[in-house]
Design goal:
alpha+beta, four-stranded antiparallel sheet, 35% helix
Length: 430
């Protein structure tokens, strides 16, 4: 097996059909725990990985779903090539489209879990999956059963699994520390922004009560005003039949949306309208310095139209805010991204779901406004601090990537016999 290379001479060669037997048992009432399998979580109760608003299942009944038991292999045949398989720790049911296998040769379930999800075997499964493109690949049970592996003795499997349990737990703990660091850095970042846009940079200046609960005290020379008084114009994108996909052209005037606002990159995207359509929709045109706000989806996706941006219009998923002369667009964008604004939106948007932002809600946001020159000073300080925060976050993200690479390499080396763990001192195998 060229892809596997050398293995210990004591390991036995076997086909997966000798290790597993497909289980075809079906649920009678569909009342067992519904399980799901993914590259990230392995086999877990679906209820634990649901996003808000998701349903446990789209099916009216779970009768006839496949039954699995602890130590069974559960495989999503459409995603086996992408680590969509794992040994189940639970008794439950899974989709009829999945395959379930029981171990029949006495192999260690923990060892098989590491083996089947290792980088080498995932590439192996992909090579023998049927289909032309990744989204259509399927590893059918017969094809899986015909594939070959090399296995150590049950005792050595248990040793390898115990070694990997301990060593991957150490790596996972380090990853968790870095993820916690990233979370703390982001919290600190927001705290710094919130402090700067409500209290300023000079802690010695006289303060006054703003009269607004969310703002609290602000510098005495600042003013507290509603956002609508800082805008010369607030415009939502065209709705309904005013702009439809069949109006798009291959070139002409740009149509800007979340695709540009979320990453803050106005050079990407390929939606255009022709000159005649632009003339009809000129009231939605953008210009340098406009603050564009995503009005559908998570709050806080905001960008300022740069000088380099092509002339265009906003689409229905954006609100365009054009500021008055005494306000810096970039400074206002930082204010709108801050937690003090988010808290206001949470209260003002009915239900606090933050799914949709409308002009009325946006207009009622309170903002603490310093003199224009001070806005620039605060913005410059924030931009410098944000670069420092971003560098620290990037460093933590890189550490996580390296740790995960190390984890994958360690698993691959252990389950393919490239490292010998039989003399591992800390090992304890019952």
């Amino acid at each position: 097996m060229e892809w596997l290379g050398s293995v210990p001479s004591s390991w036995r060669r076997a086909r997966f059909k000798e290790v597993f037997r497909e289980r075809e048992e079906r649920s009678i009432a569909g009342e067992e725990t519904l399980l799901s399998v993914s590259a990230y979580t392995g086999v877990t109760p679906r209820s634990e990985i649901l996003d808000d608003g998701d349903h446990l299942s789209r099916a009216e009944s779970l009768e006839g779903y496949k039954v699995c038991y602890p130590n069974d292999l559960v495989m999503n045949i459409m995603l086996a090539w992408n680590r969509g398989l794992g040994m189940s720790p639970l008794h439950g049911i899974c989709s009829p489209a999945y395959s379930v296998f029981q171990v029949v040769d006495g192999s260690s379930s923990r060892y098989l879990h590491y083996l089947l999800r290792s980088d080498e075997y995932i590439r192996y499964f992909k090579a023998f999956s049927a289909g032309v493109i990744d989204s259509r690949l399927r590893l059918y049970p017969d094809a899986f059963g015909a594939l070959t592996t090399y296995l150590p003795s049950p005792r050595e499997q248990a040793q390898i699994a115990a070694f990997l349990d301990r060593e991957t737990a150490k790596i996972d703990a380090l990853v968790a520390e870095q993820e916690q660091l990233i979370s703390l850095l982001k919290e600190k970042r927001q705290a710094v922004i919130c402090q700067a846009v409500t209290k300023g940079l000079d802690p010695s200046v006289p303060m006054k009560d703003s009269g607004v609960e969310w703002l609290g005290e602000v510098p005495a020379h600042w003013s507290a005003v509603r956002l609508k008084f800082l805008a010369s114009d607030i415009k939502a994108g065209p709705f309904g039949s005013a702009l439809t996909k069949d109006m798009y052209a291959s070139s002409g005037y740009r149509v800007y949306g979340q695709e540009q606002v979320i990453p803050g990159d106005f050079s990407i995207g390929d939606y255009y309208i022709d000159e005649a359509t632009f003339a009809q929709l000129a009231q939605y045109a953008t210009q340098e310095g406009d603050v564009l706000i995503s009005c559908v989806g998570t709050f806080g996706k905001i960008a300022v139209v740069p000088e380099s941006a092509e002339l265009g219009i906003i689409n229905p998923r954006l609100i365009r805010l054009r500021v008055v002369d005494k306000v810096s667009s970039s400074y206002l964008a930082e204010v709108l991204r801050s937690t003090v604004t988010f808290e206001q939106f949470s209260v003002l948007s009915r239900g606090g779901t933050m799914d949709v932002i409308n002009i009325g809600t946006l207009s009622d946001i309170w903002v603490a406004v310093p003199p224009y020159s001070e806005q620039q000073s605060i913005l410059e300080k924030l931009q410098r601090l944000m670069r420092e925060f971003d560098a620290l976050v990037d460093e933590a993200v890189l550490s996580i990537e390296l740790l995960r690479e190390r984890r994958s390499a360690l698993i691959s080396a252990a389950v393919t016999g490239q490292i010998d763990v039989r003399g591992w001192e800390s090992m304890h195998v019952d």
